[in-house]
Amino acid sequence: MKTYTDFEQIDRDLQILKLEQKIDFEKMKMNVQDVKESFSPINVVSGIFGNIIKKALILKTVNKLIGK
Predict the structure, then answer these.
(1) Which tens digits make up the pLDDT trace of 26-64?
(2) What is the pLDDT of residue 39?
(3) Tell me, what's a Pfam family for it (predicted)?
(4) pLDDT number for residue 47
């Protein structure tokens, strides 16, 4: 536990804690925005088609390797 000798130290630490709280809140807002963007219809559809294309290319490559 920290021991304070005057009110200036307390005020300084409180100011630091308030700034850290603001930074954490802004990070949280950015994370929420990232989640919203990742679930947008365009990203969901492009992700689905991207996975389908990737699997089709893998299947085509495997078929060439095994001679089908």
Answers:
(1) 999 999 998 988 888 888 888 888 889 999 899 888 888
(2) 83
(3) DUF6327
(4) 85
In a domain, 1, yes or no: no
Compute φ and ψ for 39, nearest 5 degrees: -100, 15
- Residues 62/68, Cβ–Cβ less than 8 Å: no
| Structural domain harbouring 42 | 7-66
**Contacts (Cβ under 8 Å, ≥6 apart) of 43:** 37
In a domain, 27, yes or no: yes
Structure confidence at residue 15 as a pLDDT band (50, 70, 90) = very high
Which residues 6+ apart lie within 8 Å of 13 measured at CB? 2, 4
Residue 60 within any structural domain of the chain: yes
Q: Is residue 22 part of a domain?
A: yes
